[in-house]
Design a protein that fits this description.
three-stranded mixed beta sheet, elongated, three-stranded antiparallel beta sheet, 6% strand, Cullin-like_AB, mainly alpha
Length: 674
């Protein structure tokens, strides 16, 4: 027929025949009752496809030549279009098909089992008819109905469930929808339907969920609900601003808790406990971030900035962190493995990084380290050095050079003592002396008043002085009696002997009782010339501490008065031969001491600020006031937060000393004068 130029007739005949046939089919599908409707549609669709293949094969010549030259629709495509227009778009089938499909989805959502295979075939038919058919006849209405469904369901859940349960339900719904797509919808629908669930179940209720009473984010954090937190993270991360909402609430919660921690007067009584609480908080949130929040960097940064915020709310944090280290390195690390020691030191370093006033920490750390070294109380030299290496890595050489100098002095002093005894063999009998010679700049020495040492000791000290100055030229020695210790043998009432480990001051007091039975406070003060505050602490520890009271005092009371009298406690007993009598230490600094340390820190900062100003001006030559303040603060922030008023004062001082000058026109501009 094509060769005889009847191609057109053949083609129009095909269209007419197929259309008439499909109208009949459409009628039989319309007549199908209830559940049989989809089955009938599916069956007729399969038949139509088979018929189409045969027709295409029979009319292959027409398909290849006539249709191509006349640009008509090819046979197979024509079959699909006719099916679409006569069956799917038929007035009685179109809405019924959509309603049936949507009803099946709803039934599946409410827990019924449906024939997924049949669903898949019908949806596949719509997709085969073209993506626009699938979208218009099913996908678009499906998404609208789903949004309505989830809107209602989420409202119902939010009223009756706690946050954890709600998130479980939302997660389950999301997974169901994804599964539905894999079973019988177009893969491209996945993003669209999950979007609907996310919007209706999560995005629209974000704040309500996070702040839900008794079960929201704060409660999850308090109760370490890793699973719920992980679920919240994974669901909220799917919606825009989800994670930032979680992060903001977490941040304000941590800041609130931290603020209570560092400002609660009860907590500040025990510095070691205070720092331990901070470390526990940090561990808690580190664990939450690693196990529930997928180690999210933005959450870690939020945690760090929160810690930095509240640690610096308490001006005593640097001192307390140093006291914590002191406690650990004195006794807290006994019997702890090297790895665990490193873990503890790393945690301390982490807190140290948050401090804005690192130089204050250094001041206290130096004082505490000095006491540890001089009393020989450090648990492990390795741990001490390891921490110094960490500080050096963190803050540079200047920060630790003096600390390293302290270790060097201890080593040199050992050699000096060996030399001293080698050159004085006659000193084998009688009291022995161990001297630590400290370099003035490296140690936190206070200008101390030398007390009157017992005659036996002062002769020995003189010998050492002449030996030392004989071997070293151009040095001066001044005794720091407030930092020393002594071991003395004592015999009590019933001939009971003990060795007492005391401070140098306590030794001076006790030795007086070799020559008198009873001494008043005034007499002791006169004989020893120990400063009053130290003497009172020293007598308190000798007479008022139960089990260590080698002296008795009248009247008996906790505090030392100017009119008290003291005598040896003959009834003193102890089950130990060696008895250590500590000084009643002011563990935390008292108010005046704190002020003094603060002043020393402020004084030390002045030259550092000046040096920074000069460094900056040297390279810039001309700079205005605000930029100098900014640059100086930036340069010094690894050690402390410079106060703008103080920087201004230092600039004034440099102008007076002709390092800088003000511009004649613009008074806020400075020039460097070399």
């Amino acid at each position: 027929m094509v060769l005889h130029k009847y191609g057109e007739k053949l083609y129009t005949g095909l269209v007419a025949t197929m259309t008439a046939h499909l109208k009949d089919i459409s009628k039989s599908i319309e007549d199908a009752q209830g559940g049989l409707f989809l089955e009938e549609l599916n069956r007729k669709w399969n038949d139509h496809n088979k018929a189409l293949q045969m027709i295409r094969d029979i009319l292959m010549y027409m398909d290849r030549t006539f249709i191509q030259s006349t640009r008509k629709t090819p046979v197979h495509e024509l079959g699909l279009i006719l099916w679409r227009d006569n069956v799917i778009y038929s007035s009685k089938i179109r809405t019924r098909l959509l309603d049936t499909l949507l009803e099946l989805v709803l039934r599946e959502r409410t827990g019924e089992v449906i024939n997924r295979g049949l669903m898949r075939n019908i949806i596949k038919m719509l997709m085969d008819l073209g993506s626009s058919v699938y979208q218009e006849e099913f996908e678009q209405p499906f998404l609208e109905v789903s949004a309505e469904f989830y809107k209602g369901e989420s409202q119902k859940f939010i009223e009756c469930c706690d946050c954890g349960e709600y998130l479980k339900k939302a997660e389950r719904r999301l997974n169901e929808e994804m599964e539905r797509v894999t079973h019988y919808l177009d893969a491209k629908s996945e993003a669209k339907i999950t979007n609907v669930v996310e919007k209706e179940m999560i995005a629209n209720h974000m704040l309500a969920l996070v702040h839900m009473e008794n079960s929201g984010l704060v409660n999850m954090l308090l109760d370490d609900k890793y699973e719920d937190l992980g679920r919240m993270y994974n669901l909220f991360r799917r919606v825009s601003n989800g994670l930032s909402t979680v992060r903001d609430v977490m941040t304000s919660h941590i800041r609130e808790i931290g603020k209570q921690l560092v400002t609660d007067p009860e907590r500040l009584k025990d510095p070691v406990e205070f720092v331990q609480r901070l470390l526990d908080e940090k561990d808690k949130y580190d664990k939450i971030i690693s196990s529930a929040f997928n180690n999210d960097k933005t959450f870690q940064n939020a945690l760090n900035s929160s810690f930095e915020y509240f640690i610096n709310l308490n001006a005593r944090s640097p001192e307390f962190i140093s006291l914590f280290v002191d406690d650990k390195l004195r006794k807290g690390l006994k019997g702890v493995s090297e790895e665990d020691v490193e873990v503890i030191l790393d945690k301390v370093m982490m807190l140290f990084r948050y401090l804005q006033e690192k130089d204050v920490f250094e001041k206290y750390y130096k004082q505490h380290l000095a006491k540890r070294l001089l009393s020989g109380k450090t648990v492990s030299d390795d741990a001490e050095r390891s921490l110094i290496v960490k500080l050096k890595t963190e803050c540079g050489y200047q920060f630790t050079s003096k600390l390293e100098g302290m270790f060097t002095d201890m080593k040199t002093s050992q050699d000096t003592m060996q030399g001293f005894y080698a050159s004085h063999p006659e000193l084998g009998e009688g009291p022995t002396l161990t001297v630590q010679v400290l370099t003035t700049g490296s140690w936190p020495t206070q200008p101390s008043v030398t007390c009157n040492l017992p005659a036996e000791m002062s002769a020995l000290c003189e010998k050492f002085r002449s030996y030392y100055l004989g071997t070293h030229t151009g040095r001066r020695l001044s005794w720091q009696t407030n930092m020393g210790t002594a071991d003395i043998k004592a015999t009590f009432g019933k001939g009971q002997k003990h060795e007492l480990n005391v401070s140098t001051y306590q030794m001076c007091v006790l030795m007086l009782f070799n020559n008198s039975d009873r001494l008043s406070y005034k007499e002791i003060e006169q004989a020893t010339e120990i400063p009053a505050s130290d003497l009172k602490r020293c007598l308190q520890s000798l007479a008022c501490v139960k089990g260590k009271n080698v002296l008795r005092k009248e009247p008996m009371s906790k505090d030392i008065g100017e009119d008290d009298a003291f005598f040896v406690n003959d009834k003193f007993t102890s089950k130990f031969y060696k008895v250590k009598i500590g000084t009643v230490v002011a563990q935390k600094e008292s108010e005046p001491e704190k002020q003094e340390t603060r002043q020393r820190v402020e004084e030390d900062r002045k030259p550092q600020i000046e040096a920074a100003v000069v460094r900056i001006m040297k390279s810039r030559r001309v700079l205005d006031h605000n930029n100098i303040i900014m640059e100086v603060t930036k340069q010094l922030q690894s050690r402390f937060l410079a106060n703008p008023t103080e920087i201004k004062k230092r600039i004034e001082s440099l102008i007076e000393r002709d390092f800088l000058e003000r511009d004649n026109v613009d008074r806020k501009l400075y020039r460097y004068l070399a």
